[in-house]
Design a protein that fits this description.
The protein has 192 residues and is an alpha+beta fold. The protein has a single domain (52-190), classed as Calycin beta-barrel core domain (Lipocalin), CATH 2.40.128. Helix content is 15%, strand content 55%. It has helices at 12-36, 52-55, and strands at 58-68, 73-86, 89-98, 103-112, 118-121, 125-134, 137-148, 151-163, 168-177, 180-190. Strands 1-2-3-4-5-6-7-8-9-10 form a ten-stranded antiparallel β-barrel. The chain is globular, with a radius of gyration of 23 Å.
Length: 192
């Protein structure tokens, strides 16, 4: 028995090319803009202006959740932070309490550099974290060493923080390994 194939309607190759060209014209600028990613300079003129030294001086509480690469919530947690600054040197003592009862602690040592950028270290951070601020926005990039099933994984974090008002700071962190997204962390910081 011979199989039959359906032939395309008359003029289909030309229509297909026209449709492809139209879709390219519409989608290409959006795709290219998406590749560029967010820029700190886009926020430079916005208010209120975030001053990390002021915001993280004293007690701060954060509520957060960890999402896997599919967007499913895998963990929920609360972080209690005691921040102390002396001039351009800061220390953030973070106490994590996860919904499953696990507790963790991280102590950041931060420095505001002469050009207004920030650098930071912590025991589980590989190398030096780098940050930059513009208007209400702060971008913080670093590599965190995380134990997983008896092995250490180096996960790259790209944190974007946005000051909403003098008490509220929102944070979205993208996590990557080998350049591929593996999850996100969403946090809401609050000052008393």
């Amino acid at each position: 028995m011979k199989s039959s194939t359906m032939s395309p309607p008359p003029g289909w190759p030309g229509r297909r090319r026209a449709l492809g060209a139209a879709l390219s014209a519409v989608l290409a600028p959006g795709l290219l803009a998406g590749c560029a990613g967010p820029q700190l300079a886009d926020h430079a003129q916005q208010r209120p202006v975030l001053d990390l030294r002021r915001y993280f001086d004293g007690p701060v509480t954060a509520h957060g959740m960890l999402l896997d690469w599919r967007g499913q919530v895998t963990r929920r947690f609360v972080v209690r932070i005691d921040g102390r600054w002396q001039g351009d040197e800061g220390r953030l003592d973070e106490h994590f309490e996860f919904a499953d009862g696990e507790r963790q602690r991280r102590i950041w040592t931060l420095r505001r550099e002469a050009d207004g950028r920030y650098s930071g270290t912590a025991d589980d951070v590989v190398g030096i974290a780098r940050g930059e601020q513009a208007g209400p926005a702060f971008r913080w990039t670093y590599t965190l060493r995380i134990p997983v099933d008896g092995r250490d994984w180096d996960i790259q974090f790209d944190d974007w923080m946005f000051l909403i008002d003098e008490r509220t700071l929102l944070n979205k962190a993208t996590m990557r390994k080998f350049g591929l997204p593996v999850g996100e962390v969403l946090l809401s910081f609050s000052r008393p």
